[in-house]
Design goal:
about 150 residues, globular, 3-stranded antiparallel beta sheet, 8 strands
């Protein structure tokens, strides 16, 4: 599998991850993952970080396409992962929403964490919910780009 390389230098590789591929194996994943393809081309990544991530700074869900950062050494990996953990990174997504949002702009503040029913998935938790303790704060600011009959971009 070929990936569109958006940027590369001696410290980092930035690729455009297509939808439909798992970034790295979790639990009982049997299909070939993005890290499997990367290791075929860049075997030195096995020395960056630990199994199963090997240099992957963050992940995107299987069905999400977008920019993915891959560190080429441990110092860069540590630095970039710290940025993600301390909210030093702004993530931007374009989403096609089923239905029509009422407001053209908005802000959603909630908590997010692993789902107890399916550990592969994230779940929204409300602050007073019994299982909300220790969950990460998630803030989403949105603005409508375009409206369609039954969808909002």
């Amino acid at each position: 599998m070929e990936f569109n390389v958006l940027y590369e230098d001696e410290k980092v590789l930035v690729i455009d991850k297509p939808a439909g591929i798992i970034v790295f194996p979790e639990d009982k994943t049997t299909e070939k993952t993005l890290i499997d393809y990367l290791l075929e081309k860049l075997p030195y990544l096995k020395k960056v970080g630990k199994f199963p991530r090997y240099g992957i700074v963050h992940r995107l869900d299987k069905d999400t396409s977008g920019i993915l950062l891959i560190a080429k050494n441990n110092k860069t990996l540590d630095f970039l992962q710290r940025k993600f953990q301390t909210q030093g990174v702004t993530k931007k997504y374009i989403a096609l929403v089923v239905g029509n949002l009422k407001e053209n702009r908005g802000r959603i503040e909630t908590l997010i964490g692993r789902s107890k029913k399916d550990r592969k998935k994230q779940k929204v938790y409300f602050p007073l919910e019994p299982d909300s303790k220790g969950k990460r704060k998630a803030i989403t600011e949105y603005r409508v780009l375009k409206r369609f009959k039954d969808y909002t971009l």
